[in-house]
Fold these 3 entries.
Entry 1:
Amino acid sequence: MNKDQVEGVGEQVKGKINEGVGKVTGDKAQEAKGDLQQAAGKVQKGVGDAREDLKDSVKKNP
């Protein structure tokens, strides 16, 4: 795992928490913030996944 993967998953978790708190409290702004954090986390994790795939590919086919 690389830094982008770890941070991306962390953002997804924070986003899920914010979304849940927003739903429970009826705070639509916090709920939306949670949705955005989750989306950003997925993108960042995707970048990390691509980097890992590229690194693995280079190792297999130097």
Entry 2:
Amino acid sequence: MTVKSPLTETAISAYRQYFEKSPEFLVRAPGRVNLIGEHTDYNNGFVLPCAISAHTIIAIGRNNRDVVDIVACDLEDAREAFPTKIPVTRSASNPWSDYFRGVFSEFQSEKLPTGGVNVVVASSIPHGAGLSSSAALEVGFAAALAETFSDQNIAHSRLARIAQRAENDFVGLQCGIMDQLASACGIENHALLIDCMTNAFERKRFPDNVSLMIVHSGVKHTHVGGEYNQRRKQCEQACAILEVDSLRQASMCDIENSKLSGDALKRARHVVSENQRTLEAADALERGEHKRLGELMNASHVSMRDDFEITTPEIDELVSILQAEIGQEGGARMTGGGFGGCVVAILPNAISTRVRSAVIRDYFKGQHGIILEGKPEAGLSVTQYSSPL
């Protein structure tokens, strides 16, 4: 029996309504927040994310109709279907379904078993917030397909790579592995120091006396085909000038003594310095030095603002409010790909109420805003569903 929650009940109820039976499996895939290490993942660098409480639920069951039939509760029960017996193509009318289509296409490419399924998706991850709602959907659907059709135990790390390829090759966003790996392999009360060159990761325990605070700026972003891919191209241009395969291989000395200039110089400087900050932040987290972690997060925001140029005026204002209220007890920075989305802060549990009040007063002006608080959560999980008697 699956543990009841409002989100699972929403998915089960919708599944029964639209498909007139109960699902076979329920999959929970969390969103993620990145403590530090932005735009380093596709540069073979280091990142320090953790899974969060906001998550996606996917209810799935076989339908014997040779179609994938999807209902999206978060899009007013929008419905989309595509055939399973031919190569999958993108949808012109419902681009949200491309995340499902991309994962299914990857299963076809890897000759993993598939078939017709009914799917309902429900999520508490804010869309366009930089908390990886798309990665959670991709990872969750990959796990749902694997559980439904495969007789082998597919490792969560492999599911993450399948989900990443779906985003890269099908959807068209050239992201690194961080989002999918954090959602699939997250560990309760831990952040993951991920080496994006090898996909290996180390657990870094989160201090008991410290909390995360994630605040949505209210500025939604979309990266596909836009500024995100442009930043990746600029990093590749910097690599060509430096004659390295990735910015992971470059040092600050290399950059300072190179022919880099303009945007290429700034992008490379951010990535190389961010890698060093991320390694130092992981060490600080492991030692329980949240003040040092806060200093590094603050410095990361400056680098994203000035060198990588991915913040917005709203994001900068929100970070300033958080940093001023937290003081030297922690830190705050933009998180995610940029151009909107969320800010993440680390702060002592004892001052979280005061900081939250300051954000509501000074940024949201007393109005409703999205603020998530808590500790790192566990990653992907799959449950066989059995109807209540």
Entry 3:
Amino acid sequence: MKTKSIFIILFVGIILVACQSKDNATKETKLSFNNPLPVEFGDPYILNASDGMYYMIGTGGVDDGFKMYSSTDLRDWKDEGRIYEGNTDTSWSVANFWAPELYEIDGKFYMIFSADWRENPTNELENFRIGVAVSDSPTGPYKDLYDKPIFDPGYPVIDGNLLFEDDKVYLYYSRCCYKHPVESEVADWAREKGLFDEIEESWIYGVEMEPDFSGIIGEPQLLLRPPVSMDDKQAEWESRSVTSGEVNRRWTEGSYIFKENDTYYMMYSANFFGGENYAVGYAMSTSPLGPFVKADNNPVLEKNVAQGGIVTGTGHNSMTISPDGKKLCVYHGRTSETGDNRVVFIDEMEVTEDGKLVVHGPTTGSDVDE
């Protein structure tokens, strides 16, 4: 009996040690971010490079160009300084440097970005186009690949995002609201209420692109736009900037696309990027160029002040992968402490077993498990 008791004690001890080890491993791999990060970027994008480093770029930080931060763990970030300078004597870009994204291809690094085009014979107030810069190093310096934008659709465009699939490259972008009034039941409602005479809209398009970024193949396809009817499930949250009387524009912008289980998920932002109602939704398709159907559980990321939080203006997201393989939503927002400055947040996101996309945020430092 004594020998049997000893074996039982040893067995229980082994189980307890194993459980403790599992618990410690869980604690070690559990993600935690002290949101917001100490980075004042709008439109943040993080590249998980082949060297094991994370490189973050975004709107802001320097004039006439872009700067970068780097990290080994997504928590501590090193300021790498300016990586690209536009508005030079030879650049096609002259102002408003927005929404850069970074891609690693065959040992080189390509940055697509939005800026005002120097060629502006009619003196348009918004003359945005999308271009590409390249570097041999992730931290730059980046130089324009061509002395012109990728292409000229005849209207201002921003927020370029790329999808690489097999031997094809797809470009997604947002047509600006500028000089793009659209009739809808929301526009009718705004006129009846005496708020606005017209409502301008931005729409998201997709098009195949030449692999060397020299131009596009075929015609751009309209993929997403704001709802036309007031009883559309998406109309309420996508029209808040109008219905609140804030501004006479409805945005569908800041797209980010990825593929999972043969489904293409396109995340996008709606409402005024400078206001508290900026929020994120998503749509799904079985083809990279649509048709896309907006999800019933939109928005998946929005302000949390009604729930006692301090975050507003959540939007223009991208996605990166954590060191332990989890999907992370990278986005900008504002808090009652940061004021009008846009700052970066990172929160976990997932695609559930039934195919729904869920973002577990916004969180702030006090919300995140340590």
